[in-house]
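Exercise 7b. Backbone tokens:
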């Protein structure tokens, strides 16, 4: 059992791409198989090294490590050999139409209400015409001649699929400049790298029909296919080029890898979408049979909600490296319930430690009155002596209650606002010792 994730390094990965990567990875891990990263970089103009790096980085961040990485740009000799084989078998033919000519053909067909299928005009060229083109040094592109008949397969997600070859255009495999289009290298690699299960987006379904004929023409074993339904956003289709919801964006927004994986492993499946803390759990729950063919909607809010839940449970050890220096487990454990992303913990750390916050605190509570000022000054005077611990807050609050006529919210809210600049947040009994007596006095009197 071997799967592959085959991105083209022409942009940053978006959640649709990563969903395919994750499903391929889970599919392989569940079966005890292998997961390959195949970089489809035959398009030398659009492929970029920075995107190759970014793909590796995104996969690593999510924990989807490949067992092996291959690059199509390093395998051109294999594609050349396949081309020879197809030419010898009479399945590849030279075509001389220009882009404009092809476009005109398509428009005419559409105007006549016909499907825009290539009419095989170049297949009917006489030897004389071909010699003429050669004399003019015109470079052909090469099309694969599809064989008439039904192309059928059982798709692991879509069920029975059926195409009639005559409803498909003979695909271009080699461009005028000698570069390969996606079609042939993908089939050659799937064959030669021993890919047993091809899982990819449903936008590749008609490519599968063509590639089945390629596998047959090249004498390779036909892998199992699964085409996952595409994810749509409220704005429409996801696109790598439009830069919608790239993994990098989500990462900067503070989304945790497991929040993303928890969502993407289940969306479009029969399982409920819930927080999972490890890929191992997702492997255990994975089954391709749970996936359906209907399109799924994606809203970044769904992931944000999962993320919040996940952050509330994250143990200190899991996040320590990303926390400000000095932040300890008790502090993390008290703030994590009040934040939606790990980086927000730093804000609470700064709230407790910064000496430049005093001025802004006073401005927070619009209902703060002179009465409050007096109350806060009075409370400051009876702050217990240090050292402070988690019992200090209650001792102090009892004392304040006894010396003023306030209780409940009227009592602690002005104090919370004065000390933190916010009217909500982690438990004051935990924060107070971090703020410390000197700072507390300054803030209460500000
Ligand atoms: N490079 C293709 C893509 O990104 C790969 C499709 C496939 O999995 O065969 O869409």
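Sequence design result:
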């Amino acid at each position: 059992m071997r799967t592959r994730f085959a991105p083209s390094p022409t942009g940053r990965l978006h959640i649709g791409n990563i969903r395919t990567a994750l499903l391929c990875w889970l599919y392989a891990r569940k079966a005890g198989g292998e997961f390959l990263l195949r970089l489809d970089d035959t398009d030398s103009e659009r492929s970029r090294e920075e995107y190759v790096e970014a793909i590796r980085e995104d996969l690593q961040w999510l924990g989807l490590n490949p067992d092996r990485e291959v690059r199509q740009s390093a395998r051109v000799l294999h594609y050349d050999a396949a081309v020879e084989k197809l030419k010898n078998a009479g399945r590849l033919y030279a075509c001389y139409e220009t882009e404009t000519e092809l476009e005109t053909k398509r428009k005419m067909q559409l105007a006549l209400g016909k499907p825009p299928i290539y009419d095989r005009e170049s297949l009917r060229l006489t030897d004389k015409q071909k010699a003429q083109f050669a004399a003019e040094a015109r470079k052909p592109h090469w099309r694969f001649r599809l064989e008439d008949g039904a192309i059928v397969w059982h798709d692991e997600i879509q069920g029975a699929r059926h195409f009639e070859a005559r409803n498909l255009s003979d695909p271009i495999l080699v461009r005028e400049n000698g570069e390969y289009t996606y079609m042939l290298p993908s089939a050659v690699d799937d064959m030669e790298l021993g890919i047993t299960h091809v899982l990819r987006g449903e936008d590749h379904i008609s490519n599968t029909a063509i590639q089945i004929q390629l596998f047959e023409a090249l004498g390779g074993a036909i892998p199992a296919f699964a085409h996952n339904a595409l994810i749509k956003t409220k704005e429409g289709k996801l696109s790598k080029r439009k830069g919608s919801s790239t993994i990098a964006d989500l990462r900067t927004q503070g989304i945790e890898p497991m929040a993303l994986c928890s969502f993407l492993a289940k969306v479009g499946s029969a399982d409920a979408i819930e927080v999972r803390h490890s890929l191992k759990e997702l492997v255990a729950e994975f089954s391709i049979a749970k996936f359906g063919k209907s399109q799924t909607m994606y809203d970044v809010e769904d992931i944000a909600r999962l993320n919040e839940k996940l952050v509330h449970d994250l143990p200190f050890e899991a996040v320590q490296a990303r926390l400000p220096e000095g932040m300890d487990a008790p502090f993390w454990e008290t703030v994590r319930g009040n934040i939606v992303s790990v980086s927000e913990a730093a804000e609470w750390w700064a709230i407790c430690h910064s000496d430049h916050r005093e001025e802004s605190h006073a401005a927070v509570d619009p209902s703060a009155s002179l009465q409050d000022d007096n109350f806060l000054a009075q409370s400051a005077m009876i702050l217990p002596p240090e050292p402070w611990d988690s019992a200090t807050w209650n001792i102090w609050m009892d004392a304040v209650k006894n010396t003023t006529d306030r209780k409940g919210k009227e009592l602690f809210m002005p104090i919370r606002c004065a000390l933190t600049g916010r009217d909500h947040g982690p438990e004051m009994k935990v924060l107070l010792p971090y703020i410390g007596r000197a700072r507390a006095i300054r803030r209460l009197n500000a």
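Instructor comment: The CA atoms of residues 269 and 290 lie 5 Å apart. Residues 6-8, 40, 182, 186, 200, 204 surround glutamic acid (CB under 6 Å).
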